[in-house]
User: Fold DNA polymerase lambda from Fibroporia radiculosa.
Amino acid sequence: MEYTHPVSEQNPVDVDARLLGRSYRPGGPEVPSSVQGRSNQGGDNFHLATGNIGAPGKMVANEPKERKHLEATLHEKGRLASHIVTSPTIMEKNDSLPNLGMKILSHARNASSSRRGKVIKLTGEDTTRARVLDTSSITTPASTADSKTRFSRSSIRDNKSASARAAGQGKAEPSLLKPEKSKKKVKELITPLEYAKLLQAKLAEREAQGKRSTKPYLRGKKIFYCGGDMQYASSETRGRMDYIIRHGGTLVPVFDPAEVTHIVTDAHEKSLLRVLGLRKLGDIPEHIPTVKWSWVLSGFGRRNGVRPRQPKSADRSDEKGTTVWQDDESEDEVMDYELMHASFKERLDAGPSLWRKTDRGKHKENPLNLDHPTNRGNPSGSRGLGAAVNGDATSKLSRISEFTSDKLISRDSVVYADNTSLPSTPQIPRSPLDEKAKPNRQERSLGHVDGGEDVDSRICSDPLAEFYAQARAERYAELHDHSVDSDSDGEDSIQKAPPRASHKGEQKRGFLCDAKGAPERIQCINQDVIDKLEELMEIHKAKPSEEDHWRVFSYGKAIRALRSHPTRIRSFEEARTVRGVGDKTARKIMEILETGDLRRIAYERTDDVGAISILQGIYGVGRNIAHKWYANGCRTLDDVQARIGGITLTSAQETGLKYYDDINSRMPRNEAAEIFTMIKAVAALDIDPKLFIEIMGSYRRGKADCGDIDILITRPTDDGKTHHGNSVPACLHYLLTSLPQEYYDAFYGSCVDKALLQKIYVFRTHSMILK
DNA sequence: TGGCTGTACTG
DNA sequence: CAGTAC
DNA sequence: GCCA
Assistant:
């Protein structure tokens, strides 16, 4: 059977299907219907047979002069960092599988993506360009670190200590029951319940007399107080009960969920539960917060009408060193948020939720308002500490991948256009990339890597142009199929807008990268909510506990679901309908909708979070290592570099540190294309012209920027050669080692084990997982 | 109440 | 085996 | 933190 190139023009191959491993059986020409169904014309002739690949000599032998250019350019580009990714999953492990996969991470910062030449003829014309590699090594993201760390628990502590002071004063005040003080001897015997009743009675009496408490900031709070033990009220307990009454609170002697608004206790969980007659904390109704005594005190001496707020970042105190509070609505909100004084972490969120309170109409019609300040910008990628992807490179890109939005496929319908809208004129290569005049070599038929110099035969700005239509089709398909998957890049923040989405008279576009020019549009309708939840999730990522770990898991799920939620969420109930959003998250969502903020974020953002996040940003450093290092005194990348605390790094971590910024940042799409093109050329020129090498992953899915470059390598076997033996591994090895040293370092040296090369691995991109 | 994707490399 | 990455 |  004759080998037909997989991506021949008439037959855009379904790479996904191929990767799924069903399509290619050694020696088996038949193509599963699944593949046929998805490939344009049904007859996918691509198959792989066993045999042997070309002589090793061939793979290393030639050293075309172009190669030097490539290397020089690659080098110059300062691209780097990565590892081979093996993704075993798809098929039963099968050594005969022909696919190799590798990922190249890259960084975007220096991307002088405007310059682009023919694949082969990259001249050294701009050697003056900054060599990022040299400068990018250890960059302490001081600003980031700073802003992250400074906003910390200290503010909470401040509150607490203030509270403590207030507590002293509170206790110092004369007892409400002073007259009864005479029964001093008996006081040891009074139970809290009795004492509470006594106090209430006294209060009623006083009120009957028209006396009023001076600062009744606790008015309306129906408090069940639980001291350490409930046998007898200690003097402390009595003092506190006293205090509560004095400040307008209501002491509820017997716990009644229907009446009590707050449970105040500093006791242990067990004591409280015993007193309440409950078995676990979860049995306490959600609407009743369990708070520490410090919460009660938090309103002491506070100016009325002013609510404390977790001061934001740097400007949290003025010159006088006093904390700047921010005014907020209600008069009665003069106390700390309950969650700031939660007695039990498990019940942090318990309490009267804001949105219920405000249901009473206090709030403006805000909830339905769509124009919340969308804190856009840093997509807070999982590692979000790296240099931000520069937006202008990305925006420049927006034009590269335009194509008609009509139904998929026919590759001839793929057009390139400038920023004016476009008819299908396959002739206008006006990509910014081409500004410097070098039309990129572009084979229409993707797989063709004929070592020849057929450069220039095609003009196209994007090596993968052919795939756009298909990718677009995939997206389109996704739209009609709700099994939305996430993107492991964490980059899937694109809204899956209907393909028709037109905007400002601009051409309809199919990819998010195309839409990049219309930033406000590509965001989800619930973007503000998502941002906040993501922020909280990022914080939890830096926490050590299992609990937090799963919380992150959960938030992630909820956030993904929210992204594809088509409508603006306006009610708790609606939020709950989203898969993955439970009661807690729904409440958080409502809080965000109503206030634009999420108090829990401030609460969780403790001192260590910022530093831990930074440490975790190092490739090879996860939760545990990060905390270990933190405990050893490391706070910054410099600390790590200095091996503060005597920490040791694995080789992967060293590399991760060295290329911190690179790994943590994304490159604009065209840069990925550039690198890929070079790699592809190396593969063709130096290794084997028959190699089928294609770019996958986020690039293929049309993202505007890429965190890495996913590459699929395989080889047709129509010539009877195989992937077995040393050949393919050698190919890969050669490919890798042909990269400039810097690449090799990070890319190969650190993360790749030789063992990897002993086998043939399969790489799959995320988009394939689901179907 | 237990489970949360699943696999492979490093040390 | 624990830790990490994808 | 969610879900079955």
Remarks:
- The longest strand of chain A covers residues 708-714.
- Residues 540, 547, 550-555, 557-558, 579-585 of chain A lie near DNA strand D (CB under 10 Å from a C1').
- The radius of gyration of chain A is 32 Å.
- Chain A is about 35% helix and 5% strand.
